[in-house]
Amino acid sequence: MAELRLLGVKNIVLSSNQELRRDGLPYAKRPQPMDRGVAVYFEREGKQQCIPCDKWSRIEDNVQAIRKTIEALRGLERWGAKSMVDAAFQGFLALPATSQAMQLAAWWEVLGV
């Protein structure tokens, strides 16, 4: 959360299958769920962003990987490579609520069934 705030983002949501406290953060001593993937959603410069991670076998390790990613992006920005950071964040754009694929014809219509 601190790294995201230093990046100047808003509306931060940490998403996982871990049971969460009232403040939206995971409990420290709960057992690991089957799906250990984590995603953090936030708004940066008016755009919805999402950074997911499911590489590691523990939720806290996936959260740490996201933190280190954000830390590295902040470093690029500090070192004068803001255009690289903006380009990187293009890959983190959150998917819209309704995707274009959902607007396609039903499979039975496409196949004439």
Can you describe what's shown?
Strands 1-2-3 form a three-stranded antiparallel β-sheet. Helix 2 packs antiparallel against helix 3. The radius of gyration is 17 Å and the shape is globular. The model has no long low-confidence stretch (mean pLDDT 82). The termini are far apart. Helix content is 35%, strand content 19%. The protein is of the alpha+beta class. The chain has one domain.
Q: What labels describe this entry?
A:
alpha+beta, globular, three-stranded antiparallel beta sheet
Sheet-strand content, in percent, reads 15-25%
Structural class: alpha+beta
The neighbouring-strand order within the major sheet is 1-2-3
Q: Helical percent range? A: 25-40%
Distance between the termini: 51 Å
Please summarize the sheet with the most strands: 3 strands, antiparallel
**How many domain modules?**
1
Report the order of strands and helices. HEEEHHH
Task: Give the overall shape.
Answer: globular
DSSP strand tally? 3
Rg, Å, rounded: 17 Å
Which residue ranges are poorly predicted, with pLDDT under 50 across at least 5 consecutive positions? none
- If you average the pLDDT, what whole number results? 82
Note the total helix count.
4
